[in-house]
Amino acid sequence: MKVSIVHNHEHKSKEVTGQLLLLLTKNKIEIDDHQPDLVISVGGDGTLLSAFHRFSHRLNEVSFLGVHTGHLGFYTDWRDYELEELVQSLLVHQEKSISYPLLDVKISFHGNKPDKHFLALNESTIKRGNRTMVADVFIKDELFERFRGDGLSVSTPTGSTAYNKSIGGAVLHPSINAFQLAEIASLNNRVFRTLGSPIVIAHTEWVEIQLQESNDYLITVDQLDIYQDDIKSIYYRIADERIHFASYRHMHFWHRVKDAFISED
User: Fold this and answer.
1) Other C-beta atoms within 10 Å of 189: how many?
2) 49: Cα separation from own chain's centroid
3) What is the average pLDDT value for the chain, to the nearest integer?
4) So where are the chain's domains?
5) pTM score > 0.70 for this model?
6) E strand or H helix at 87, and its extent?
7) What is the pLDDT of residues 216-265, one digit of tens each?
8) Which of this chain's residues are annotated to bind NAD(+) (predicted)?
9) 82-121 pLDDT, tens per residue?
């Protein structure tokens, strides 16, 4: 097995990474930052998101595992004081993995500018500077509504617990191969109307957001901010690729939700 470690720049994470490297080397587990079989993130959920985007070109060959230096997150199964147990599990257990859906994001532009493609593990949002955003929402090539408001958020099932939840979206179990469209402060009155509720889109369908011409749109893909001129539309669907998490001790999704939002056991 070849392992790569991705960590943030916090002192605690660097310290834990050093300890983990010593344990891996001691147990003759190879470190390979180019073609690993397993990517271990040390930090928090944001660090794992960074690891995902760093190795998103190798999703069919690599699985991920998260070590949290604070409290457990939605993508981290191990704590920083469990390193020896973690390394022993790599040596003893046959590797199994659990996979989650990803979001395919395609940004199209006016003129001859080529499309840009991204994969999102959590969500993608569309917002516009300091003005009301006006956009036509198409579902499977059919106009669904004309949106007016602060913006739109499109999330994966695992990402449904992030920004999506804070704007009233539903929490989806990651075994549901679908994505969710939620409105951010939509404008609803006698003249302008939107559905006003989150929508769950099946993996067999897609959503296209066609934007009015403007140069002040901000597109986010997970923690990435994308400022581009002349954006015409953004196309969303469930990606063909999936992310794989090493399931040596993968925590049940609803346990994570309870731990994060209700109480700790």
Assistant:
1) 7
2) 6
3) 92
4) 2-96+247-262, 102-241
5) yes
6) helix 83-92
7) 899 999 999 998 888 999 999 999 999 999 877 667 888 888 888 887 65
8) 45-46, 122-123, 148, 150, 161-166, 185
9) 999 999 988 886 667 889 999 999 999 998 899 999 999 9
Known binding residue 148? Answer is yes
**In sequence order, which residues have a C-beta less than 8 Å from that of residue 33 and are 6 or more positions away?**
4
CB 186 within 8 A of CB 131: no
DSSP state of 159: G
Region label for 93, one of left (φ > 0), alpha (ψ between -120 and 50) or beta (otherwise): beta
CA dist 56 and 78 (Å) reads 22
Beta bridge partners of 130: none
Q: Is 185 annotated as belonging to a binding site? A: yes
CA end-to-end span of the chain, whole Å? Answer: 34
Residue 28: what residue type?
K
* CATH class of the domain defined by 102-241: mainly beta
What is the domain class of 2-96+247-262 according to CATH?
Answer: alpha beta
**45: which residues sit within 8 A by CB, 6+ positions away?**
66, 73, 74, 75, 76
Q: Write the pLDDT tens digit of every residue in 117-158.
A: 999 999 999 999 888 999 999 999 999 999 999 999 999 999
For residue 104, give the amino acid letter.
D
Instruction: List the Cα angle 68/156/154 in 5-degree steps.
Output: 120
Contact 215, 113 (CB under 8 A): no
- Known binding residue 123? Answer is yes
Is-catalytic flag, 229?
A: no
72: which DSSP letter? -
User: Does 99 count as an annotated binding residue?
Assistant: no
